[in-house]
């Protein structure tokens, strides 16, 4: 798996509140306000198909505040990877549900830190952004 080099650094912020404010400012301006319905981004790897955020926020809020902070720092870089990466991800069937396929993309921030982005596809060929995390 080849990592995609993003143009973004990690999102700055020393507290969870400050980090959320920076992330949601970017999310609302660049993603949510561009559609009247469900927020999505188009992916270069999937031939400009829509990737929805339905599961991402629910999954993120289930994590501890410390883990949430670690994952939110990669938000801008994650969006860049999903939008622009044409590198082949690792692909595997979901062990919990046979009707789903999981794609894991690798990315590098501008500061050369590696992270992974996971996308889930169901049989109806809808794709959902699941998670973003660093290997540490």
Offer a concise description of the structure.
The chain has helices at about 15-30, 55-60, 65-70, 75-85, and strands spanning about 5, 40-45, 50, 90-95, 100-110, 115-120, 125-135. By secondary structure, it is α/β, with parallel strands linked by helices.
Q: Count of helices?
A: 4
Q: What is the count of distinct domains? A: 1
Low-confidence stretches: none
Mean pLDDT score: 91
Helix coverage percent: 25-40%
Number of strands: 7
Derived from helix and strand composition plus strand pairing, the structural class reads: alpha/beta
SSE pattern, N- to C-terminal: EHEEHHHEEEE
Radius of gyration over all CA atoms, rounded: 14 Å
What summary fits the major beta sheet?
7 strands, mixed
N→C terminal distance: 18 Å
Shape: globular
DSSP strand content: 25-35%
């Amino acid at each position: 798996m080849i990592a995609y080099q993003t143009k973004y650094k990690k999102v700055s912020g020393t507290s969870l509140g400050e980090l959320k404010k920076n992330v949601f400012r970017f999310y609302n301006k660049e993603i949510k306000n561009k559609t009247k319905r469900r927020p999505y981004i188009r992916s270069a790897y999937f031939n400009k198909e829509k990737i929805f955020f339905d599961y991402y926020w629910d999954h993120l809020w289930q994590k501890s505040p410390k883990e949430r902070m670690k994952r939110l720092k990669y938000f801008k870089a994650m969006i860049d990877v999903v939008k622009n990466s044409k590198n082949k991800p690792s692909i595997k069937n979901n062990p919990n549900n046979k009707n789903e396929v999981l794609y894991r993309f690798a990315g590098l921030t501008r500061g050369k830190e590696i992270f992974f982005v996971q996308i889930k596809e169901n049989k109806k060929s809808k794709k959902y952004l699941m998670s973003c995390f660093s290997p540490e």
